[in-house]
Amino acid sequence: MPTDFTVLTTSPGFATRGDHAEQLARAGAHLLRHAQDDAELPELVAGARYLVAGLVPVDARLLDAAPGLRGVLKHGVGLDSIDIRACSQRGLPVLNTPGANASAVAELALGAIFALWRNTVPGHLSVTSGGWDRRVGRELGGATLGILGFGQIGRALAGLARGIGMAVIAHDPWADLETARAMGVTLAEREAVLRGCDVLSVHVAGGPDTRGLIGVPEIAMMRPGTTILNFARGGIVDLDALHAALETGQIGRGRARRLRDRTPQTSRIRSFPIRACSSRRIPGPTRTSRCCAWARWSSTTS
């Protein structure tokens, strides 16, 4: 089948479900997959009309290598890996798929809360090592969930939490008061959320403005034993501060996202297998969310 243009993707999960690749082919597109070798990327992007970006940074240098590029599309939501200014200077639109993975992230966040409060990880480690540890857990009904960032993910998590009897307080300067009221969610200042929650879940956008958003001063405001979860970008929660708080017991449990490297900071968090839950970057990608992202991407670009 003849092709009219090239679509280069740096996201391993793009167009891998159902007949997505065939849909591209029928539209006249040749799908080219980047094999994560950065050295070859400028050569590959040189002939592309559209770039579907994953986690590989899209900067001015890469854009200069693509004179025929007509648009950059994020396979996901966060745009922190894309130089928006560089794209604007070249007249390139930047699109993403907001909300496509909201349910997936919210479900995983709630699952992490259950796992941490009911000591699922310690129980598993005990049984697999030949033990029979019977740690007493805590129930979530009646506890207070604090959410920083009341966007689509934050709202999805709030709905799940309300469904199991949790009180929910949230902070977001752009949140709609009537929407929050209809969901039974109380909007409050950030300090009030930090001081008033039993579980804090972070769902703000990544970038310079939010890096280190939760550090030593913020953790000091929280109740002793509070649980912190970061399902947003890495760096929003200061890992050194989290480690220190886990050591002293100021933070009872923690869940850190995107521990992809082996820096001293991430290694120290791994030293708390009983009270800290960490993983590689997995919150958003599910079969359903990828299909939803594809539907939004295809409708936007058609």
UniProtKB/TrEMBL annotation:
GO terms for molecular function: NAD binding; phosphoglycerate dehydrogenase activity. Residues 111-252 form the D-isomer specific 2-hydroxyacid dehydrogenase NAD-binding domain. The keyword Plastid does not apply. Keywords: NAD, Oxidoreductase. Its EC number is 1.1.1.95. The keyword NAD applies. PROSITE patterns: D_2_HYDROXYACID_DH_1 (PS00065). Gene3D superfamilies: NAD(P)-binding Rossmann-like Domain. Pfam families: 2-Hacid_dh_C (PF02826). It comes from the Bacteria. Belongs to the D-isomer specific 2-hydroxyacid dehydrogenase family. This is D-3-phosphoglycerate dehydrogenase. It comes from Salipiger mucosus DSM 16094.
